[in-house]
């Protein structure tokens, strides 16, 4: 039986991760406070969702050494992993609010500690599959998929117990349109299914998401969704760290997520890379609330 079938409907526990240590703009670490201040809790409650929330302790300042940077990011991820492991063990549906996308290492490593098998839908403009050897920037937020698949910096891999958290057949990436050749080669070698934006446009997002869920959620006890807001077109989500044109449209994504919300194994969602100073009239902040509400109203 799918683990999430015992979850209380229409409730969500939000975990804010106030860290931008892994990205190119540390101001992404201000996202949880900005999102939880007003728009996200209000939109959730307007949609009949019971909300509880916590913000993890703010991490130490970024040090100059790259080794220290990975260690600090790993510390943030370990703190988060303990929180998501606890929530999954207690059958509580969760929403993680990053911060930069390196927090995904902690989110899903923690889930894996409390469930036998995990399927993950990764919605992003980027592949996030670099290792320190291939990354032009050395930014950890470009590495979480590789780490979750068992490759990368030793500090980050320790959060995953020095083993792959994900099986290649149980993760799909959707909406990708900005990446380096080394990342693509890495994922192709492992056989990870990537739905690049041209295929999404041709087939329709709803059909792609349906196929991806069927692929990753086969015989799993938990299904998760990780969303970098830059997957969305800047017309709908301007408040992101690395906006990329020709993205997913919110109306279509919301329709696809309504179907995912019905899956009995759905355990949690992660939303990352919100950048308040780039937002316009809180458009992206309200979208985050609507996104979480769509998934929190499970089996509606």
Mass-distribution shape = globular
**CATH top level label:** Alpha Beta
Strand content: 15-25%
Secondary-structure element order, N to C: EHHEHEHEHHEHEHHEHEH
The structural domain count equals 1
Tell me about the biggest sheet? 8 strands, parallel
Please, what is the CATH homologous superfamily?
A: Ureohydrolase domain
Mean pLDDT: 93
Number of helices: 11
Q: Which residue ranges are poorly predicted, with pLDDT under 50 across at least 5 consecutive positions?
A: 1-6
Helical content (DSSP H or I, runs of 4+): 25-40%
Radius of gyration: 17 Å
Distance between the termini: 19 Å
What is the CATH architecture term? 3-Layer(aba) Sandwich
CATH topology: Arginase, Chain A
Taking strands numbered 1, 2, ... along the chain, how are they ordered across the largest sheet?
A: 2-1-3-8-7-4-5-6
Q: Based on helices, strands and strand pairing, what is the structural class?
A: alpha/beta
Number of strands: 8
